[in-house]
């Protein structure tokens, strides 16, 4: 929720009309205050989201409330690609709740992968359950939109996210928990250098049932250098 500021109408200064000056005559009515000039609504342009990392074909940046219309349209057009593995928000209200969780929770980072040439959203990669201290890790959730599937954009975007997470965010380890039948997601993390660490029965409740997951992970020392990626430092 946004922070609230005190209502200026409730703040009284020493110069308010309720305070008498030494020159006012006892019992004399205070002079009427001058009418305030009419002021129209002030519109402030929101700053453009800052790219966090840039590759040859993609850019990653933070998800914002203003991305709702494009995000939900992409999710609706990608239902056949996502189900039964993934259920991203497809309505304005669902997106608002989704974005609020990602933006307000310090243990989450909601990131978008954009096609560099067009600026169109290719997909999303979220870092959830971020833990600092000795662990310095998080868990990934991600999905491509149908127009970007099979074009290599999410692979490059994931590479950028890893470099951002292991650089400016200061993380050491990222996990991706994937259902065994989701071969496309498994191929994505395998290509990115993740290793298979184990199998977790009944790991997450998805689409009405507890689903088994494979546990894939990568640590910062496993990431090869990539001179093509430009990562913004915090």
Q: How would you sum up this structure, described in words?
A:
This protein has helices at 68-77, 79-82, 92-104, 153-166, 183-191; strands at 51-54, 58-62, 109-115, 121-131, 137-144, 173-178, 195-206, 209-219, 230-231. The chain is globular and about 40 Å long. Mean pLDDT is 83; it is low at 1-33 and 35-45. It contains five helices and nine strands; from the N terminus they run E-E-H-H-H-E-E-E-H-E-H-E-E-E. Helix 1 crosses helix 3. With 234 residues, it is α+β, with helices and mostly antiparallel strands. A nine-stranded mixed β-sheet has the order 7-8-6-5-4-3-2-1-9, sandwiched between helices. Strand 1 (51-54) and strand 2 form a beta hairpin.
Task: Tell me the structural class.
Answer: alpha+beta
| Cα shape | globular
Number of helices: 5
Write out the strand line-up for the largest beta sheet, numbering strands in chain order. 7-8-6-5-4-3-2-1-9
> Distance N terminus to C terminus?
24 Å
Return Rg in Å.
25 Å
| Helix content bin | 10-25%
Order of H and E elements = EEHHHEEEHEHEEE
Task: Extract low-pLDDT stretches.
Answer: 1-33, 35-45
Strand content: 25-35%
Query: What summary fits the major beta sheet?
Result: 9 strands, mixed
Mean pLDDT: 83
Secondary structure: number of strands: 9
Summarize the structure.
This protein is α+β, with helices and mostly antiparallel strands and 234 residues long. 21% of the residues lie in helices and 28% in strands. The protein has five helices and nine strands; from the N terminus they run ββαααβββαβαβββ.
């Amino acid at each position: 929720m946004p922070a609230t500021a005190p209502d200026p109408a409730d703040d009284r200064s020493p110069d308010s009309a309720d305070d008498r000056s030494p020159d006012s005559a006892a019992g004399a009515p205070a002079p009427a205050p001058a009418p305030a000039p009419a002021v129209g609504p002030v519109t402030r342009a929101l700053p453009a989201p800052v790219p966090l990392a840039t590759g040859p074909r993609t850019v990653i940046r933070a998800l914002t409330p203003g991305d709702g219309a494009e995000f939900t349209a992409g999710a609706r057009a990608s239902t056949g690609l996502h189900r039964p593995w993934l259920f991203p928000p497809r309505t304005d209200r669902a997106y608002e709740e989704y974005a609020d969780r990602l933006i307000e929770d310090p243990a989450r980072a909601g990131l978008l992968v954009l096609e560099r040439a067009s600026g169109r959203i290719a997909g999303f990669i979220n870092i959830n359950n971020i833990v600092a201290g000795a662990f310095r890790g998080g868990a990934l959730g991600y999905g491509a939109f149908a127009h970007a599937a099979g074009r290599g954009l999410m692979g490059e975007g994931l590479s950028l996210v890893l470099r951002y997470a292991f650089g400016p965010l200061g993380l050491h380890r990222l996990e991706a928990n994937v259902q065994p039948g989701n071969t496309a997601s498994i191929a994505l993390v395998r290509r990115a250098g993740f290793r298979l660490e184990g199998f977790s029965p009944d790991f997450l409740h998805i689409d009405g049932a507890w689903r088994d997951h494979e546990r894939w992970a990568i640590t910062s020392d496993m990431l090869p250098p990539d001179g093509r990626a430009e990562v913004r430092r915090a």
